[in-house]
């Protein structure tokens, strides 16, 4: 399992991709890509000595089922995946890679429902969006005991510090200035 901490750059475009590869960050999260780009992105990322965490729900051109995950994990060779879908998390855990369950804390009902699912599946990490609500981060951490990553609406250094103080071990952001 990858050790995730501090700021984790989340890349959405090729321009950001080139920039983050030159950064000192070891782990890179790829949020959006296309099937035709997967292998090239992964190969170049590995060549630069970095680890690949792919948000599999956002890959255009691939169905994320058992066979799609088999391709992403065995052929593309990612180090970890992110998904909002519990069935994807459950399948990915069988492959012994880092598995991050993305949770949207929209309201109390959604939070309770997601916590029940997460407690059954036990991902390696939980990414909570929005990540700017430290009280919710603490509640989720207390309920699950699973390391938390805060993401979404992270716009300032203060947001990062508040999330870390609220119990997150890491923060994802696509804001290049915070990388």
Automatic annotation (TrEMBL):
Q: Matching InterPro entries, A to Z?
A: Aldolase_TIM, GlpP
List the molecular function annotations (GO) for this entry: RNA binding; transcription antitermination factor activity, RNA binding
Which key words tag this protein in UniProt?
A: Glycerol metabolism, RNA-binding, Transcription, Transcription regulation
Transferase found in the keyword field:
no
Sorted alphabetically, the Gene Ontology BP terms of this entry are: glycerol metabolic process; positive regulation of DNA-templated transcription
List where this protein forms a coiled coil. Answer: none
Function statement: Regulates expression of the glpD operon. In the presence of glycerol 3-phosphate (G3P) causes antitermination of transcription of glpD at the inverted repeat of the leader region to enhance its transcription. Binds and stabilizes glpD leader mRNA.
Name-wise, this protein is: Glycerol uptake operon antiterminator regulatory protein
Tell me which species this is from. Answer: Ornithinibacillus bavariensis
